[in-house]
Amino acid sequence: MTHIVVLGSTNMDLVTYVARAPRRGETVTGREFRTIPGGKGANQAMAAARAGATVSLIGAVGNDAYGVRLRDNLEHSGVDTDFLRTVEGASGTAHIVVDDEGNNAIVVVPGANGTVDHLSPGDEGLIASADALLLQLEVPLPAVIAGAEAARRHGVRTVLTPSPAQPLPEELLSVTDVLVPNEYEAVTLTGRTDPLDAAVGLLDLVPEVVLTLGEAGVLYVSRDTEPLAVPAHQVAAIDSTGAGDTFAGAYAVAVAEEKPLREALSWAAAAAALSVQREGASASMPYRPEIEAQYTA
Ligand code: RIB
Predict the structure, then answer these.
(1) Which one of 115, 162, 268, 279 has the largest count of C-beta atoms within 10 Å of its C-beta?
(2) How far away, in angstroms, is 223 Cα from ligand 1 center?
(3) Cα gap 186→196, rounded to integer Å
């Protein structure tokens, strides 16, 4: 079975559903409030597990009630949490506003994720056993770099979601195989506004780029092949939170299973299309049979 390791964050998402997000200085009345397990690392781990892989998550939760629920939620989806440490203090939280068009705005407070600034005993051995290592930027950069370097030492493919967007050091780029930005992140990293132009610009930094474009689909570019555009599955989105994480987790599984490139991209896009039709991040992630049913060659 495919084995995916994720190094990254767990957050409790504090989600407010509202017709329209407030402008600066404005107060609006929301429709509903929910607490839903999330965090980019945990989301990608759950997406990959539900897509059919054996998955382990390296990270940290706090010793509070959220930490217990975050761990339980991962285990319930079959994610191995042996390398998810419980540390003193608060778990990470994400404060999310979702409007009636399914758009979101997020403030993340790292909490326990901020303690993940190095690899702990056993982490490198776990990474060495994986088919792929998934990384994002919600834990401190030194750990992300150390994880990617460990993966490179053992010939394990690294897939980095550069979110939240920030300048990426050469130390990290030099050990990144695949970058999976969204349009905002690609523009931030390159300063280029045209999606193809931005994706091609990123090839100066890493060998492969999968640019997720929401309703416009996915654009794949690499140093060795022609660009490949895959359309999105047309669905009515109600909440896009975690869609990028769902795509990254499912894509890693598809590639590790050696699906042909176009199929891997479309299969992961099918997973993301399913996730945007449901509320919440982890709560919206599809199981493999649902992805198979949504996917059309
Ligand atoms: O990518 C979506 C995630 O971003 C949410 O689950 C939230 O926790 C933030 O980290």
Answers:
(1) 268
(2) 30
(3) 10
